Amino acid sequence: MSSPRTPVPHTAWTALRRDGVAIILAHPATGLPAVLHWGADLGPLAAGDLDALDLATSRQTTPGTLDAAWRLPVVPEEANGWSGRPGLLATRDGRPLYPRWSSQVEHEDSGSVRVTATDADAGLTLRIRVELGAGGLALLQHELINDGAGEVEVAWLEATLPVPKTADHLTAFSGRWTREKSPLTTAMPRGTTTRESRRGRGGHDAPWVTIASVGSPHNRRGEAWAVHLGWSADVRHRTDRVTEHVTLLGVGELLRRGEMRLAPGESYRTPTAYFAWSAAGLDGIADRFHTWTRARPQHPRTPRPLVLNTWEAVYFQHDPARLEQLAHRAAAVGVERFVLDDGWFLGRRDDTAGLGDWLVDPTVWPQGLEPLADLVHSLGMQFGLWFEPEMVNLDSELARAHPDWLLANPASVPSPTGLSFRTQYVLDLARPEAWEHVRAHMSALIGGLGIDFIKWDHNRDLVEAVHDGVPGTHAQTLATYRLIERLRTDHPGLEIESCSSGGARADLGILARTDRVWASDSNDPVERQDIQRWTELLLPPELVGAHVGPSPAHSSGRATTLSYRMATALQGSAGFEWDIVGCTDEEVDAITAFADLYKELRGLLHTGTVVHPDVRDPALRVRGVVAPDRGEALFTVCTVSSFEEALVERLRLDGLDPERRYSVRLRDEIGAAQWGWATPAWVGKTPVVVPGRVLTEVGLQLPALWPAQALVLHLTAV
């Protein structure tokens, strides 16, 4: 039998506490700090309490195993007796590096700590920053510096935090075009597992978020731990459930061989990893992300304008007179931002030519875009324009003049094996002259037309992204970030939407520089129920574009009622993707009412707490937004199929104040839902007043809604 192991003495402790969350770090005399606890706030702990926590959670050495420290440091390595995936893998001149760190701790403020670790023999410095931000969201970032002679190649440097053994289920995300962010929950896999994205952007099947939970996750209850990487390119999500240690949950940038080589004095800084713990299920995870996101200085503070984007209205068929007519109709129904989509620039009559030539096509727009921009502004709307700055067609003046500006394997241009997409390629923005070409053309248009908004698209993966003979995805991503930042600096007030053939680039890295994302190229409201629900697991609704499209939907062929499409769009940053000039008088009245309703409610919808009551019937999709003071709430009750039973379950409305009474009103200005013959007694023209405790604990009896129908319930405290 082995003897109890003496805990490693610690010279210092760090306890970060905020908004119900705590991270407790132990700083040993040698080596890197270890995370003793990440989870519920334990309250104020004295030094003796922290010593007791260390003793209470330490373990003895198992016979037949290494005698190394069992407390895993924030960057675990083989030298720690760790059999899982190392947190750092690097070589110098082709030889492996096994650092022995000596670290110093600097407490920046009550919410963050910075660790500087060095190994003079290895010629390395590692800087680690741990922050507990608004909402209790944990942020981790590493920086590795080459202090020695010779080149250091970084294979990976990843952020991890421990989760307890009780976390026995794992939820990961995948998807496809027009069906982004589709979750799958499984039992926690044993050993080390990784999930990678190699698309040069997140991709429609991006990992997005990885969630560990106690049992299958629920919306409103149960412990869960989540991680997301704020990086707009290749990522790797990881879990390590090895037999001797706590489970690790982590994430990092996926670097290709030879992509990150550090000459003496150079450094590699990782993207920020975001970790969220919740004792209140998935809505608790979302609340931490939403609170942190809304606390950012750059977060949009003005009311989110009602948008009309012209893509599904005209596609490539640009005609100035028709678009001016569309602008007049948009202003008349209450649109506040008019966005001209793809097709306005040189040679762009379809998707095979023109990308890279950011000049207005005089054959289509003989007077330029100034008359349209002036008209839009005179009608009281903002003017927006579509760009795809990172892309180029071979059939373009730019590609003919500078074929060497492509981010590609030269052997694949033109593509003999289908490595282009829509016949487009990637422009190497890490090349300064290419970056400046795009910046200058975009800036001239933004300033000349008074552009208020850019729809920034990115419609293809990066395949064999070669820059100066080495992988170039990392450099391309940073160059894109710099371009966005420069344009916003040069044009104060400019807003930008991140679109990537829908929701293929919606991470917190791109959203540090943009103002919203286009959640999906699908405007099918049935598909949108789940796309928007899982997008807002991270992003608050004011950042998620949600538009009313025509019926049938162009992406699925499904026909739905206008009221259902509008109720679905009400759940985000709303707008239209539709030729509303062709609407009937009844449709014009409905979308005008929708515009009024959106403007009335967006102050609530874009500041409140998002809740998803747990329901049993798979036909139901229920979502609510509750005001910060719980004085008001709006719930949308939607169906995606028919109910299993004739008597539908009662709907419990979570998040309300149990001590207040609420007036419950159906907002059917945008059209009434349809259901079977039985109508619950509370449904009527006169609002019913119900105690909050009753609404939460007992609920409302739902009618047997038909498939693809929606109720909009407005609650106000009385």
Automatic annotation (TrEMBL):
EC nos: 3.2.1.22
What would be one Pfam family of this protein?
A: Glyco_hydro_36C
Q: Which UniProt keywords apply?
A: Glycosidase, Hydrolase
| Catalytic reaction equation(s) | Hydrolysis of terminal, non-reducing alpha-D-galactose residues in alpha-D-galactosides, including galactose oligosaccharides, galactomannans and galactolipids
Q: Which residues form the Glycosyl hydrolase family 36 N-terminal domain?
A: 31-262
Q: Give the compositionally biased regions (Basic and acidic residues).
A: 193-204
Recorded superkingdom: Bacteria
Broadest EC class assigned to this enzyme:
hydrolase
Please name the InterPro entries in this protein's record. Answer: Aldolase_TIM (IPR013785), Alpga-gal_N_sf (IPR038417), Alpha-glycosidase_related (IPR050985), GH (IPR017853), Glyco_hydro_27/36_CS (IPR000111), Glyco_hydro_36 (IPR002252), Glyco_hydro_36_C (IPR031705), Glyco_hydro_36_N (IPR031704)
Query: Which SUPFAM superfamilies does this UniProt record tie to the protein?
Result: (Trans)glycosidases
Q: Where is this region: Disordered?
A: 182-208
Alphabetized PANTHER family for the sequence = ALPHA-GALACTOSIDASE C-RELATED, GLYCOSIDASE FAMILY 31
Q: What is this protein called?
A: alpha-galactosidase
